[in-house]
Amino acid sequence: MSHEAIHTVVNPLPAPLHGSASVPGDKSISHRAVLFAAMAEGTSRLSGVLDSEDVRSSIRAVSQLGAEVSLEKQPDGSLAGGITGWGSRGPKQPDGAIDCGNSGTTARLLMGVLAPWDVQAELAGDESLTRRPMRRITAPLMKMGARFLPEGRETLPLTICGSPRLRAITYDAPMASAQLKTAVLLAGVYADGTTTLNEPAPSRNHTELMLPEFGVTTTAAERTASVTGPARLTACEVRVPGDPSSAAFLVCAAVLKPDSSIQVENVSLNTARIGFTRTLERMGAEVSVRHMGAEGKEPFGLISACYTSNLHGCEVPAEKIAAIVDEVPVLALVAAHARGVTVFREVGELRVKETDRLAAIVEGLEVLGVDAWIDGNDLYVEGQPGLHTPEGALFDSKMDHRLAMTWALAGLCGTAPVQVAHFDSVKISYPRFLSDIERLAR
Ligand SMILES: O=C(O)C1=C[C@@H](OP(=O)(O)O)[C@@H](O)[C@H](O)C1
Ligand SMILES: C=C(OP(=O)(O)O)C(=O)O
Predict the structure, then answer these.
(1) 7-24+241-440: what fold?
(2) What is the ipTM of this complex?
(3) Closest residue to atom 12 of ligand 1, CA basis
(4) Could you name the CATH architecture of 27-239?
(5) What is this structure's pTM?
């Protein structure tokens, strides 16, 4: 398939960013709310659900598998309403392939959802998703007793053949991945005994926090999580807080655009998600968080940020990467404005996201005239305080939403207009990104 690139011109913001904004619902929590509600007995009430292409992929998938979804668009742009799950009946055999679109989370979590049932479901995806590694999920699920066809295939399309007699396992994950952890735990809910997932560094823990809301006990410590089956999910109410990964773009914009000062409200403050605030602080940026409460076990509150003229480089150690994994591109853009070198240690996982984000960061920073390089799995950025945007800069988002927003920010907070190819990929996680940021700069 060939995609003709549509170039969007992004102009520098006419004024500093000021005031308050709220961001749409958290993507990771929205996926889980939809999938867990579909697995549960009864009707769950969901609100604040992100309306984006990726979450729509999960919604379509659970509908195809027999859950009754009645989520409706709210005046604030979120989705709210009920999902009646398949509960003890299990998912129905789908008619055709399940299209997971661009969403790694949908594809990988669905494997864990389907593994314990007597169904065969083909999971497919777009060009980007069909390049992403799936063995990290199929390997532990096969140990539990699920099968995947064609045998030995490591990418989508794949057909999962579930088994109602899954074995509980203890699994040492080769990488810190919440998608892998979640797939194994979800399968473990229906296996006989305790399933434990140990990880090399702490990944986001939304699954461990949300399963108990659905009546399934989990035990979790820093690098390990367990569930004891067989158990069952029962319907509950989930209110989804704002997405810190979306907030990160507004926060970084405020840090980069002279004289800005903003706050982002009602955003998830889960520590496994707001590592970017600590990285920015270590670069000397003025960023702070204020806890306001909790939705279920998920903390939420305010993130405040101001323009900072004297940013400096820093080193981000390997064990902190999982907490900023989706924010590395935009943090690399901030590092490009800092004095000295910033090093992101062990960021090899970025190679297997929607595109090779490591290579894309180096390529995009080169467009800005900034030196960045990869040594092994480490990313180095040599910052240039007072960086000027070159005339006619053209960035390729590679149809990756995080890159589209990062390079748009180079234009919004820079000194000259830029062009971003396939900017519309922001619809994957943050469709109203541009209007939110432009509203703050009026
Ligand atoms: O579990 C999740 O919701 C996610 C986990 C992360 O992926 P990995 O599990 O591959 O690290 C992250 O990059 C992705 O955006 C969402
Ligand atoms: C990597 C991402 O998502 P997913 O893995 O669900 O495609 C992302 O949102 O940056």
Answers:
(1) UDP-n-acetylglucosamine1-carboxyvinyl-transferase; Chain (3.65.10)
(2) 0.99
(3) 326
(4) Alpha-beta prism (3.65)
(5) 0.98
